[in-house]
Design goal:
Two copies of one chain form a homodimer. The first copy, chain A, is mainly alpha-helical. Chain A is built from nine helices and no strands. Chain A has helices spanning 2-11, 18-24, 29-35, 47-59, 67-83, 88-96, 100-123, 128-151, 158-173. In chain A, helix 2 (18-24) packs across helix 3 (29-35), helix 7 crosses helix 8 (128-151) and helix 8 (128-151) packs across helix 9 (158-173). The A-B interface holds A 66-68, 100, 103-105, 107-108, 111, 129-130, 132-134, 136-137, 140-141, 143-144, 147-148, 164-165, 168-176 and B 66-68, 100, 103-105, 107-108, 111, 129-130, 132-134, 136-137, 140-141, 143-144, 147-148, 164-165, 168-176. Chain A binds a DNA duplex (30 and 30 nucleotides) through helix 3.
Chain lengths: 176, 176
DNA sequence: GGCCTGATGTCAGTTACTGTCGTCAGGCTA
DNA sequence: TAGCCTGACGACAGTAACTGACATCAGGCC
């Protein structure tokens, strides 16, 4: 993972081959593919633990909480964890921004987070169109907040940005 | 395109090679890649015209319309156009559902629609966090509505489903 | 000391994609 | 009518991402 991120940063994602990554790590190409399903996945290895965090936070939201608040609690937990990662999440985001192929992968991962969130909401008794919609909304809020967090060097508090973005969403969707 | 969709439907996306598609169309592999950037893109060729439709609808929304209503007008226009496609959109959706690779591509295309929508909203004077959020919300609404449209054989009116999903979103995000 | 297991190397193969060059038909112009 | 130009296509060689099969080898366990 370290070798891959270094090389993606140095020469760019598309310009680095899997053989080069393996060589820098002191391994062979074949071994790389035993650890990562493909050349992209090496950047998304941490996603599963993030998903577990999110799901747990949704599940642990107070019983009385509105669905959207439970979902947002989930993405806030994920956001807090990301924030602990130091420079790495920002570096990762910058690399992803350079390649559509990587953006594709990021989008499916986020979509997976949305599915997990929706499933957890259903478990909490939220009926179906509402559960999906709430989950999608929460992930959209997360994405916008994360974008701002990555690009604003000043802004350090990702969970705070998430709450602010939720407020924006509420303002924006408020009926006439 | 016809050859590709047929083959993807018959043996599955991953099981069909570009050579086979080209052969069925009476062409060579090389010519396939002159028309489509890659094996996935053949399923998303109609996306650009859909995007133009959406952008135009957002631009033509009445001046007084709330941002969310302008954005929803855009996805409604797209939805109406999709509905005109007969069986093809549903077939396409069923094929995409069988392959993560294709879902990745679909997600970037939707993300592109969200970007275009946000850009158009900014042109209408909507400031920045609100514009992105509104666009993302509109696309989320579209996605949920489209999913229901694809899976409910009874449901024929996609724009109606979109409006219903927007109402759901409003209910779900309404503050306490 | 023998055996099993898990991680790795090696090698051959498939397929998506790209660059380059040659061909050829149709339309346009002198 | 002859020459020319252009755009679409075929042919061919090459790269790189993946995959399957088999061999090796170190460490732990009986």
């Amino acid at each position: 993972m370290k070798a891959a991120i270094e090389l993606y940063g140095e020469r760019g994602y598309e310009q680095t081959t899997v053989v080069e990554i393996a060589k820098r790590a002191g391994l062979t190409e074949r071994t790389f593919f035993r650890h990562f399903a493909d050349k992209r996945e090496v950047l998304f290895a941490g996603m599963t633990s993030l998903e577990e965090l999110l799901v747990a936070a949704v599940a642990n939201a107070p019983d009385g909480a509105a669905p959207i608040d439970a979902a947002i609690a989930g993405v806030e937990a994920a956001g807090a964890a990301i924030q602990e990662g130091g420079d790495l999440p920002r570096l990762r985001a910058r690399i992803i921004a350079t390649s559509v192929e990587l953006q594709e992968r990021e989008l499916v991962k986020l979509s997976l987070l949305a599915s997990s969130t929706a499933r957890e909401l259903r478990r909490r008794g939220v009926p179906d169109p509402a559960a999906s919609l709430t989950a999608e909304a929460a992930i959209a809020v997360f994405r916008v907040a994360f974008d701002r967090w990555v690009n604003d060097a000043d802004e350090h508090d990702l969970p705070h940005l998430i709450r602010a973005s939720l407020d924006e969403l509420r303002a924006v969707t408020a009926g006439h």
